[in-house]
Amino acid sequence: MDELIINYISKYISLSDEEIRIVREQNLIRQYKKNEVLLAEGELATECYFILSGCVRAYYLIDGEERNTAFYIENQTITPISYQTHSFSEYYLSCLEDCIIAVGSDERNKELVEKIPKLSSLILQMNGELLMQKTVELDDFKNYNPEQRYLKLLEKNTDLANRVPLYHLASYLGITQVSLSRIRKRISLQHR
Amino acid sequence: MDELIINYISKYISLSDEEIRIVREQNLIRQYKKNEVLLAEGELATECYFILSGCVRAYYLIDGEERNTAFYIENQTITPISYQTHSFSEYYLSCLEDCIIAVGSDERNKELVEKIPKLSSLILQMNGELLMQKTVELDDFKNYNPEQRYLKLLEKNTDLANRVPLYHLASYLGITQVSLSRIRKRISLQHR
DNA sequence: TATATTTATTATCAAAAGATAATTTTTCAA
DNA sequence: TTGAAAAATTATCTTTTGATAATAAATATA
Fold first, then answer.
1. What span, in angstroms and rounded, lies between the C-alpha atoms of A179 and A185?
2. What local confidence, expressed as pLDDT, does residue B192 receive?
3. Which of A67, A124, A132 sits opposite B120 (nearest CB)?
4. Which one, of B62, B134, B51, B64, lies nearest residue B95 by Cα?
5. In Å, what is the separation between the CA of B169 and the C1' of D7?
6. Spatial CA neighbour of B78 closest among B54, B98, B61
7. Nearest Cα to Cα of residue B156 among B144, A45, A136, B167
């Protein structure tokens, strides 16, 4: 199971057998059921996550409505803002599917980086990449209207679009489920 | 002038006198006139920036329209995506005001980090912070409608709201200048 | 398989945004 | 200071989205 983590890390830096052993023995792997909550609004996050299988969504509760802002799938890391800032979380993290997740904590991560210093260069690279991704995501969100955003999502994130119920996607696209339904109809009418 | 850079760095890590000297002699400071273009669509970025004074905007050209996606002011760094990925830029960087900017390049940055290794921990921290900011920015953009976004901008970025022409702000908020004008009117009518 | 629950679509009406053009206000330079 | 250019507002009309409720389709479960 933790092969996946090793594979992931190896994409960025090369690990010796000894280092692989260290990563293996460090890693705490947990299973979560669908709809289990990893983090709730108002809590202090003490953990970060690397998804081995399954899907997690982040959502805010606004006027009693859930507003999804991110979906995380296999091979993606979740570092809650609350984890980084030690402030109370403003959003929830909840499993959309049964999940298997590698869970990190401050102490364990520190220990790991001490034992394998070059991991910090991995983190540097990953953060840089994540920052770029977020930037592009935000730019796209501003530059395109809901219909264009939905088409882009279908194109670039086909997997996600199929795994996640439409009403969750709608909120992720910044619109209501009803509006997304209309958009889908409009598109299907245009393409015939 | 490069006091500003030293001050900024010192907020994250402490520098010895010798290290301050190194930063000083490394740094290349340039002046730009209003409307000068730092980076154009289709170009390969070879530089990154730290703004000492002035204001820079990032914009995409979409169907002949300029769509602003970011504004950068004093004490902010600009690391073009093109600079990180070595791919052609999809957006422009252009000065909204006369600017004084510290310019970094791959070679010079590498040299600097070699001479002052702890700078890499600064970059790590900065990237982490920038990632969080972007995440929150994107979340807010999704969670709020144009009027709410404008009000939030006024509240949290008063300085920017006053420095930047409304029609630039509009595109940054993801709406047209006409729509922003209507929003402003609506707000002013409500508050009396 | 039947039934309850969840998910997706449709209909109606109101509110907001886009497109376009005209006009007013502000800014800046000759 | 005045005249041109830039920026902001207003008006009109169309399109899209939001809110709400009803209905239909799909999925899960007893």
1. 10
2. 62
3. A124
4. B51
5. 12
6. B54
7. B144
Q: Contact, B68 vs B57, CB < 8 A?
A: yes
User: CB-CB: which of B84, B124, B138 is closest to A69?
Assistant: B138
Nearest-angstrom CA–CA distance, B134 and A167 = 25
Take residue A128 and report the two structure tokens written for it. 């840089």
CA B5/CA B46 separation, integer angstroms: 20
pLDDT tens, residue order, chain A (192 aa): 678 888 888 888 899 999 999 988 887 899 999 999 999 999 999 999 999 999 999 999 998 899 999 999 999 999 999 999 999 999 999 999 999 999 999 999 999 999 998 888 888 888 889 999 999 999 999 999 999 999 999 999 999 999 999 999 999 999 999 999 999 999 998 766
Q: How far apart are CA B156 and CA B150, in angstroms?
A: 10
Most A-contacting residue of B69, B77, B168 (CB-CB within 10 A), to test interface: B69
Does pTM top 0.90 for this prediction? yes
Q: Which residue has the tokens 């997690």?
A: A56
Lowest-pLDDT choice from B18-27, B141-150, B163-172: B18-27
Which residues on adjacent β-strands are paired with residue B102? Answer: B29, B50
Phi-psi region of A4 (alpha: psi -120 to 50; beta: other; left: phi over 0): alpha
Whether residue A123 contacts residue A129, with contact meaning beta carbons closer than 8 Å, is answered with no
CB atoms within 10 A of CB B34: 12
